[in-house]
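in:
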């Protein structure tokens, strides 16, 4: 039981971290940050152009939301199996 709580907390923390980086990348897109330089987020070199900032930002946001929803989905699957086993 404690193992699942730790896994859930780690998934939530990872989701928040990825969403924070998505916010940073998308903020650069909306601030008009352009140039020939790159920024480093989550180990990726992201060029400062419209397509890259928007693409990476939205990708990070989707992955972060999936990490935040993962504990809910895992718990539903675990509870569904345990209810089915009792019958």
């Amino acid at each position: 039981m404690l193992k699942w709580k730790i896994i859930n907390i780690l998934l939530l923390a990872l989701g928040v971290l990825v969403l924070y980086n998505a916010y940073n990348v998308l903020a650069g897109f909306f601030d008009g940050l352009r140039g020939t330089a790159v920024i480093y987020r989550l180990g990726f070199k992201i060029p400062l152009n419209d397509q890259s900032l928007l693409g990476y930002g939205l990708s990070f946001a989707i992955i972060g939301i999936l990490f935040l929803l993962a504990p809910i989905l895992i718990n539903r699957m675990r509870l569904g199996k345990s209810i089915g086993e009792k019958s």
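note: The chain is about 75% helix and 10% strand.
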